[in-house]
Amino acid sequence: MIILWTLIAFISGSLMFSYWLGLLAKRNLKEQGDGNPGAMNLWKAAGYRYGLAGIALDFLKGYLPILIMIRAGDISGYAVVLPSAAALLGHSFSPFLGWRGGKAIAVSFGVWSALTSFAASLAYAILLVLLLFLGRWIRKGKPATPVSDGMQVVAGMVLLAVYLQMAGYPAQILMFWLANVLVLLYTHSRELAHVRG
Ligand SMILES: O=P(O)(O)OC[C@H](O)CO
Known about the structure:
Layout: H1 2-14, H2 17-24, H3 39-46, H4 48-72, H5 81-92, H6 105-116, H7 119-138, H8 146-166, H9 171-187, H10 189-196
Helix pairs in contact: 1-4, 1-5, 2-3, 2-4, 3-4, 4-5, 4-6, 5-9, 6-7, 7-8, 8-9, 8-10
Residues 36, 38-41, 58, 102-106 line the site of SN-glycerol-3-phosphate.
């Protein structure tokens, strides 16, 4: 069952809804903005209606398979880690985009929402807002950059461990957290590479 659910979650994650919505709006996201096939780039390229649809669909493709898997009772304990990580990997290494993909932010929210009944997603969202204000304060009002955005996303996920520990989540959740940190580090490696230079 674990292999089946891992496959289902990977295929679900690999559905590039924001990219396809972009094509529907006659915009190739790979040639627009930062080139990311995600909802924010879609929003900027095609407007808020498309952007909101992209956010919802990219969220649901992580949320639904993991929720159904848990509800079905087929998978529990450490076995949840593999399908959960597979949903993220599907988005970032999509066979529909030549094994390339997006940053895996929206799909991460979806998976965390299914695993923790939205609690960790809310905590991550709060952390991102706090880091947004902290970043503005540090930059003294200067606009955000892809580098500062990337740092915010990764730092927020790293700090989520504090919440997960305090809330007493089991080891398998912390294991998925580690997988999520690694995926976000990889998908933001271009931005983070500029932090030192
Ligand atoms: O992580 P993605 O690929 O879903 O897209 C990133 C979002 O658009 C937020 O920047």
